[in-house]
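Issue 218. Parser rejects a valid record. Input:
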Amino acid sequence: MDCETPLAEEKVKKHHSGRLMINRVCNERCVFCSTPPVGGELPFEEVKKRMLRLKEEGTDELVITGGEPTLKKDFIEILELAQKMGFEEITVQSNGTMFFREEFVQQLAKMKCNLKISVSFHSSDEKTFGELTKAPYAYKNVLKGLELLGKYEIFTLIVTVIQTANYPHLKEHLKFICDNYPFIKHFSFNFIDPVYWAKDNAWTVPSFSEASPFIREAFQYLQDNGKTFRIEKIPLCFIRDFEHNHSDLRRDIFNDKLMNMFFKRPTDTGVGGEWHVHSNSSYFYAPQCKECSLQSICSGINRQYIDIHGYDDILPVHDRDPAEILSKARESELTTNPHRVVTNGSLASLMPHLRKDPFRHMVSEDMLFFEKAMQKFGNIDLLKNTFANFFSNPASVRKERLKFIIQRFQATRSLSREEYRKAFAQDIIMDFPHAVRALELLGVIDIDSKNIQFGDWEEKSYYPFFLFFVGRKNVEHALQVSEIALEIKA
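Output the parser choked on:
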């Protein structure tokens, strides 16, 4: 895929994911499972060894998976180890059946600063859920678990495997989640991977053409309701108008790496060892793909899919612009993951096509919140406590960095990057991307190659803005607040 042009003039911070499979035990028996629960688990020391390997390979996001990883008795200890190793993000891939236990979720909440829970939930219809998972009892446990994850404000996303039994009801499934669990903002979709049990149960694999209208309808619903989403393992020609949401496209644009530490068992078939770096080598282009305007950016068709359905339903498109799709994918990724780019100088033109309406109400509420907070502003400690929940770092690290920064601001109204880097071994632009972008746009700070210099705003104004944007994970929202703040300032 030719994806270098959109990034030619940017310094990009890559995002490397490492999947660590810690067991092959599961309390469900999904008829389409691509990693069957054949038994066994890794000892803690082996988990530690593999975790270190992923860290040495440059992993930013550690993804703990199984089997069902939450069934492992030392699961909490494994999470604690991952946090000590300093992974930027820790994602747990789970079927969600164990989160109904409130004391368990309370333990997770203590580590929620950089923890994500990825819940596989393939149908909100109880009967269909039971037929797919062969564990009908688990349905109510999953719903209770989602409720508790929301109660304790643990970042949660939903993963849905698109297959024959659920694709006609995909929109209804998403509406159920959005209506009952509005705290869930992101959804990830996998078109079913026809391997292992899915290959044995070929009826679970729909054709792209029959599922496509329902997928696009579901995506339109999510987009209309301000949710973000990704999909993979489907050709771009079947997700028209949503091509930029394809995971492989985004991964290739930013040259990211997806590493896997599998837990192989004697019953596993196929070649390959336990260490694997993701590629699309098993994908195929149909003869008619040569005529498609999107072939240069499309990952193609899963060969296992062709074994079931062939490729007659692949219809090349001629009216889609790859450059436009790449630009949209890049812009959308920078919106939801602002850590991607590190730049020097003006950032006001970073997001030229902000969608204002979905954020207007949220921004207004934020501004009222800040006004109340600033009225009560009495000392640095109070300010720190008020805004500490917006930080994503562990509490001890967060307080030390904040104390250091505020002391420097008070003393000189400027902060040397070298001084900050010497104290914390990080660049302030990378460490606080939201703050830098928003405050520079506001005119509160001015950046040169070595220093961040403050403008004329009063401390009661710029401190809350600074602290707030440090913790925001959506740069689009940050810039929205900045625009409204500029209106108020004017």
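Fixed in the parser; the record now loads. The first strand starts at residue 17 and ends at 21.
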